[in-house]
Amino acid sequence: MSEKRYEKGPGKGPEKGPEKEPTRETARILVVGGGYVGMYTALRLQKKLKPELRSGAARIVVITPDPYMTYQPFLPEAAAGSISPRHVVVPLRRVLGQCDVIVGEVKTVDHARRTATYTTLAARQEGAEPATLTYDELVLAPGSVSRTLPVPGLADHGIGFKTVEEAVGLRNHVIGQLDIASSTRDPAVRDAALTFVFVGGGYAGVEALGELEDMARYAARFYHNITADDLKWVLVEASDRILPEVGPEMGKYTIRELRGRNVDVRLKTRLESCENRVAVLSDGSRFPTRTVVWTAGVKPNPLLAATDLPLTDRGRLKCTARLTVDGAPGAWSAGDTAAVPDVTADQDGAHCAPNAQHALRQARTLGDNIAASLRGEPLVDYAHAYAGSVASLGLHKGVAHVYGRKLKGYPAWFMHRVYHLSRVPTLNRKARVLAEWTLSGLFKREIVSLGSLENPRAEFELAAGGVPPAGPSGDAPGGTPKGSS
User: Does the keyword NAD apply (predicted)?
Assistant: First the structure.
């Protein structure tokens, strides 16, 4: 073991915050982010650095805004009610037992001085200044954020689909719209409630629409004055195809499948405005709607711009095939925040796609390389040929393009479930998800909306003489429009 690698670097003085300053022989590894790369890298480091962690020669600190990792491929099924939301997330404190997990947000990184500033929930409530944390090795994996455009009305009425909270909220919202439509005599209100516009034809948009349309179609049978044909679903995509990851042929099949379910698929079309609850498209179409779901891509986390690390013209970290940040010793990254060269590609200058398939495998190599670096051992390049893609379009429906083979319908849906069940972390979550799938095959779907969970104090505030807060999209708690009864 190289003793030099375990000495503290320059500029490491006392720090603010609850952490105890490590000894000079301790190498502190700071992992920023608890998503795919952050959690899996920390897991790998726990395994590879077990002797060092036990002796105190190494210490791993994970700073993440949420105390859990969200397995995003399961968000559509969580929105449809096929999986309980709590089984879509993995508690970091449970799986990262050898790490110090800090629920907070990193604000800046000064890698030249090996320092990072961060805030915690307590610090924000106390109005305290950001704390400073020193480190020896940095894993920067804060993830991505939704890429939005300056569309009028989007900030007021748009709904995202990137977190488990958004998935649950969208499910409650869709069922709430069915309740509104079934209880109004105003045809304009009814039509707007039963019109659902999804912007973005990638994985998130297509899978979310497919699962929710399937769920709403089933739920409509329990309303005496709503049929499945009354529901209007619109998918808006700016390019000339959807699901490019599964190839042109499967993309065209997906369009036929969705249109066969009365989904209005608009290609080469953009959302121009959604002010006043009216979705205006670039082709001149206008849809009065109470639901606009925005899934039109992601962009690098703004934290990257608050560092002194090199970025590409698209705002991602410049990385090497060994997952080090180019020209910044001691800095590492992977996943959708990193531009990692694809050594398996035929053309020069190609980079790995920023998807979960690469992120999971990169995290393994990243953990191995950090451990090797601390021990003075050689590093290895990340190399993985893209295996393919699978997508769910609702219960028993899907498309897949894996290892050159193209599947659709039930076989693709089954492969989608098998693949993601094998990838979701921890045996605990695998067992729970499998149990829920088994039970959902034996019993009917749940069609209950728990929209009031988004404002749990509303009823008490009203009873106490206060004014309850407005619900999502300006609605009163529970999805009921203000002023209606």
Answer: yes
- Does this model's pTM top 0.70? yes
- Reported as a single tens digit per residue, the pLDDT across 306-322 is 999 999 999 999 999 99
Query: Average per-residue pLDDT in the chain?
Result: 88
Residues whose CB is less than 8 angstroms from the CB of residue 49 and which lie 6 or more positions away in sequence, other chains included: 58, 60, 371, 374
pLDDT digit string, tens, across residues 248-273: 899 999 999 999 999 999 999 999 99
Under CATH, what is the fold of the domain 148-296?
Answer: FAD/NAD(P)-binding domain (3.50.50)
Within the chain, all domains assigned CATH 3.50.50.60 are found at 3-145+299-374
Q: Where in the chain is the domain with CATH 3.50.50.100?
A: 148-296
Grouped pLDDT means (10 residues each) for the chain, 485 residues: 42 41 73 95 96 94 95 92 91 94 96 96 84 96 90 93 92 94 95 97 93 94 94 96 88 94 96 95 96 91 95 94 96 95 86 86 96 95 84 91 86 92 90 92 78 70 71 46 36
Residue 468: what pLDDT?
62
150 forms beta bridges with none
CATH label, 3-145+299-374, candidates 3.80.30.20, 3.50.50.60, 2.102.10.10, 3.90.400.10: 3.50.50.60
